[in-house]
Automatic annotation (TrEMBL):
Residues 44-483, 549-759 form the Aldehyde dehydrogenase domain. PANTHER family: ALDEHYDE DEHYDROGENASE-RELATED (PTHR11699). This is Aldehyde dehydrogenase. The keyword Hydrolase does not apply. Residues 490-514 are annotated as: Disordered.
Amino acid sequence: MSIREILTTLDYGPAPEDASAVRGWLAARDGWGQFIDGAFTAHDPARAIAVENPATGEVIAAVTAADAAELDRAVAAATRALPGWQALGPTGRARFLYALARAVQKRERFLSVLETIDNGKPIRESRDIDIPLVARHFYHHAGWAAALPAMFPGMEPVGVCAQVIPWNFPLLMLAWKVAPALAAGNTVVLKPAEQTPLTALAFAEICAEIGLPAGVLNIVTGAGETGAALVSHPGIAKVAFTGSTEVGRAIRRATAGQGKSLTLELGGKSPFIVFASADLDAAVEGVVDGIWFNGGQVCCAGSRLLVQEPLAERFQARLAARLAGLRVGDPLDKSTDIGAIVSAEQLSRINGLLNIGRAEGAVIHQSGPVPEGGHFCAPGFVTGAATASTLQTVEIFGPIATLTTFRTPDEAVELANNTAYGLAASIWAQDIDTAMDAAAKVKAGVVWINGTNLFDAAAPFGGMRESGFGREGGAEGMLAYLRRPGADDVADDGAEAGPVDLSPAPAPASGMRGNDAPALDRTIKLFIGGRQVRADGGASYALRGPQGVFGAAALGGRKDIRNAVEAARKAAGWSSQAGHNRAQVLWFMAENMDQRRETLARALALTGTPDAEAEIAASIDRLGLIAGLADKLAGRVQSTRARHLTVSLAEPWGVMGLACPHRQPLLSMVTMIGAAIAMGNRVVCIPDPRQAWLAADLAQLCDSSDVPGGVVNLVTGDSAALAEVLALHDDVDALWHQGAPGLTARLEAAAAGNLKPVIRHAVADWAMDPAALLALIAAGQQVKTIWVPYGA
Ligand code: NAI
């Protein structure tokens, strides 16, 4: 036999990982209860959930679906553990996190095998990616625990956190959730996915073994109902969820108005863009890591391959050849590339989608036959799927990507953004301009250039649009588990001012004026797209102050909000301007406000606002400070892996809805509008309806200060109803309000549609200190993390 023949016929021999330690561990128990207050409760066979090995279908363990009493006990244990955990101080907590990291490292082999048996992922992945990253997460966050007072002065933990995680990276998702929560001084009740609870239970054993104080981490098992009961539990202060967009939406609705802070890491349909200049082999190998990694059961999988035409034919040929060489089979075999799909249900979901795709005319190229007995899916790719077809739009969550060609970079970006999701994007090009231009334009929380699926504990990860909100990892991830003392303790801004009367003005009568007020026949208009416009239908309401009716204002409605949102969308140029250009406009506003002190004082006097002079002075200062900050808060460089530059850029949300409070009307409105537009947002602002006169002054101020039309839009009327219209609107990217809890519930529920974040920083005194202002300004930003190769 020639060497050539030997090399071409050479096949891998089996190289199974030794699973005896894990099998022994599994055999030692009949079933698992909950891990509450540092100990396991008894397993209850009547509430058993069978856990199977997806590669064989064999039942390997039984866990107990937690009941309401167990959830109560878990939350109570976490609540009791809070003061002691916080009293340990930064270094004390850091020691425990270091101990957890080391204990995970010591058991890397055991945990990798357990993860593979429970989830079906290849041992190469659990051993080389999942478990090392788990250890890295605890090390990194041990550092945050120690550095807390230095890096987050004045902030405090949120309280008891409910964390619900999926089955695709069971222990890694636990680490992403638990490490920052504990580092910040919170305690946790975590629910792993019902399909893959075992590494979480092994982790509970590790916690007990290293002596983590009882109640600091509690683990409850169960399915969706358990998760739903946990997130809605009244003892919970913060909910962190990773999973499907559908369940994320349900959680948003279920927790609306409960005063819980919420982060959602949801699904994706991430583009994998290959430009003509790409290194072809590297890009094809990227697909292996992008969509075939973990059987495609990855929220940020590169599931839509977009390839530039000149390269497309060669790319597809090379991809097909690479696909043919993939080894699908026993996940415990060290030479297996693709393991089993997590469950029969998930496999049939994938196959169901592929059948729909076939019926819609798509051609599915899959690798050869797969082993029998387990839930295996042949990896592949799809051609001929129309842009709006099922396979192009629905998250398959299996090892199948669509392949589409494009001609120009603009077309690539258009296709990339043609999805409701915005989790990740992978861009392949050897010319830097093309790559960076696309990176700037794709709507994604994470962008990898000439790479894919790179993760690190220091790199903020999370989505835009319907991929959720909030970030995990790095400083941004820590912020999700911290709060400013006193924030949100301001109950109800509107109530102290009493109900708003929106009845129309009495018929104009000559001589009928408020004290020092202009004539009644001046109806304040709305300010939309840089123009003063009447409300749709021409309705108006009377403006009333201590001296009686002093004017009338347009009563804006649904249509006016729609027009304002459209105007704001059109003003997109504002978002791509340099920060210093925006700074100049804001500075100009401050200067012009200085010239308008008298007019503003008159407007404030009309509504009987106390301390008007001081408020005007503070508002001018505030605009000046915000102008100064407009080019200073651009993001940061993260210390992740060697040979990578990982930058977290602060991007604007896009169009923000602002519902302004009654308290300190000028200062609050100027702060909210200023902070939002300084970061590049365009705003639809709903002033307190009593302050329409003041809002009209602000509109003039914008006009005379070169604020481009559409960047600031002001719509007066029933502010709660208008805010709800904004919350429901799909073209509004974030909503910021100061309203009462009742309003919060309505807005949070309404915002579940496009999953826009609803930000409520209840502010007691708008003459806030600079640190509090910085936190407010951060409300106008979302983070895009970009990974670029850097250094040899
Ligand atoms: P899922 O979103 O239902 O499950 C994720 C976690 O949420 C599990 O722990 C589950 O028990 C829990 N859960 C379910 N309903 C809940 C509720 N109403 N309240 C609170 N917690 C709840 O995901 P599932 O059904 O396992 O997978 C379905 C599809 O979701 C997949 O095909 C995939 O497209 C997507 N998915 C996305 C993930 C991601 O990381 N983005 C992860 C898992 C699934």
